[in-house]
Amino acid sequence: MSTHSHAEEHHITSNKTYIVVWAALMVMTAITVYVSYINFGTFNIVIALVVASIKASIVALYFMHLKFEDSITWVFALFPLSLLALLIGMTITDTFTRTIVP
Amino acid sequence: MANHTIAHNVYVPFLEKKGILSWILTTDHKRIGILYLISISFFFLVAGVFALLLRYELLTPASDFVQPHTYNVLFTLHGSIMVFFFIVPGLAASFGNFLIPLMIGAPDVAFPKLNLGSYWIYLLGTVIVLIALAKPADTGWTFYTPYSATTDTDVVLITLGVFVLGFSSILTGLNFIVTIHKMRAPGMTWHRLPLFIWASYATAVLQLLATPVVGITLLLLITERTLGVGFFDPAKGGDPVLFQNFFWFYSHPAVYIMIIPAMGVISEIIPVFARKPIFGYKAIAYSSLGIAFISFLVWAHHMFTSGISDIAATIFSFLTFLVAIPTAIKVFNWTATLYKGSIHLHSAMLYALAFVFLFTIGGLTGLFLGALAADIHLHDTYFVVAHMHYVMIGGTVMGFFGALHFWYPKWFGRMFNETVAKIAWFFIFIGFNVTFFPQFFLGVQGMPRRYATYPAEFESLMSLSTYGSWILGAGIIIMTVNLIAGLINGEKAPQNPYGSLSLEWQVPSPPPLENFEEIPHVTDWSYGYGKKK
Ligand code: HEM
Ligand SMILES: [Cu+2]
After folding, report:
1. Which domain holds residue B428?
2. Domain count, chain B
3. In this complex, is the C-beta atom of B174 within 8 Å of any C-beta atom belonging to chain A?
4. How far is the CA of B432 from the centre of ligand 1 (A)?
5. Averaged over B141-170, what is the pLDDT?
6. pLDDT tens for residues B86-128?
7. How far is the CA of B219 from the centre of ligand 2 (A)?
């Protein structure tokens, strides 16, 4: 689409930033793999998910340019996360409060 | 705008170009709308034939016309085709495509090629489902586990088809959201937008945000069936109710994907034929967004008897009642618009009035079902069947037929026979009620849904319902023939036969290729009827 308003500036990210972000992603991948070999019990999942969320965030922020977008784009990017929380939260409300009938 | 060089009074209707390529490669939103319109209407008629077969089986208590397994296949196909091929793309893809750019004063949607892509993805999905007919599924349109994980019919292919159809829906939603944000003509502020646009916007948000969930859910089911991963099978550590949680997280919002565009249509038709400004513009506009949002909070009202916890059931029952508020806001505002209006009973208006009446019955019976105690009795009975058909036929399909009769002259540049249209409406209205009203009683008396046979005591109401389906079918045939006849030898349509103030009526019928000779400057909303000039 070519109707971007002129007011919006086109931000140019330097190659250096991209490489740093890429390196960070690689380091975190290594951490995920490494941690999976150590037994932290339930915390294995927690660690894996936290690392994955950080990775997803920096991909969105830098590779997908979210950091330089206007507020409406942020709304559209963040709102689905609240729905995801809703889906998981309300489903868990069911599973954790079920009475088991033998 | 590229058309400054074209001489000003050369009018090329968008239907001018002929030939198959001008259709299958078109990026014109009006033509893509027609492609959808033909496809969804075709599938509506096909699934309608399945419905008549189902009702014919139910004419007598015994299973004498088809085998029970065939019956299961028939209601699965009826439901899946009606839901995923017809009513979900439905008004949004057909009339949404045609109207959104015209109503906001734009030459096309934001991403015309993506728009064509959505249509081809839709077709691909339908083809996959057609291939699945070699060994048709018998799960019902809801594909509930554990049965869907174990039946030896072809569940994988049909759900894969639905998965693909989902992408069409997502991309259409994305396209419309960007179009409405970025392509409005100068002066077309949010609060001047026609209400159909507000409705389309709310629908698009739902399409974009809810559809991925059903896609993933069906993918999980496919993984379970093909690779044996235990998502839903308790023996492998899964949870069959989890499927229902995920499925309805999409499918409850999906019922609003079906109905909100129809509500938008009604908000356009009523003021024109009541010659009054729409009452409560902002309330109607924001209640569309309100419905869209609340629809994410109520999904487990489909699962009260599935073994979810009492606490969850209570919360969801409470939240379900909230949906009634924005819905009622709309009904009250339409009624207030009619009040002291100068009402003209054009066929489109008849459909709009039928919508208000029938949808109210549908919505109110939804409250019975949302009440926890009542639902324990009514769940999976004909009461639910009656409820869903009052909202989906009484609501969405009436809105669809209303839209067809209302925008027909604009879209095709022809008129249909109004008297025949009214006769068809009459058959449809009577036939619909004779078919589905008895089902409320059947349900309360305990007749379960999805059975090919039933106890003899239900025979009189069951056969009455079947007779009704014949009247309804006759009405739809009359309507279809009338609309097709109009295309062939109907009178030429004037630019604005009903004196509407909305932008789409200010261009010739059918609209020119790029819609507007010059992008209009909008100075007012489009509902200023009945004011002295
Ligand atoms: C006031 C608004 C509404 C309320 C409170 C409501 C409530 C409900 C409830 C509680 C059920 C589950 C009943 C059961 O299975 O025991 C249900 C089923 C259903 N509703 Fe609604 N509903 C509303 C509007 C709609 C609309 C607008 C549509 C579609 C256009 C719709 C379509 C359906 C369908 C298709 C089912 C049956 C699904 C199935 O099991 O196959 N409803 N409704
Ligand atoms: Cu629901």
Report:
1. 8-506
2. 1
3. no
4. 18
5. 93
6. 999 999 999 999 999 999 999 999 999 999 999 999 999 999 9
7. 22
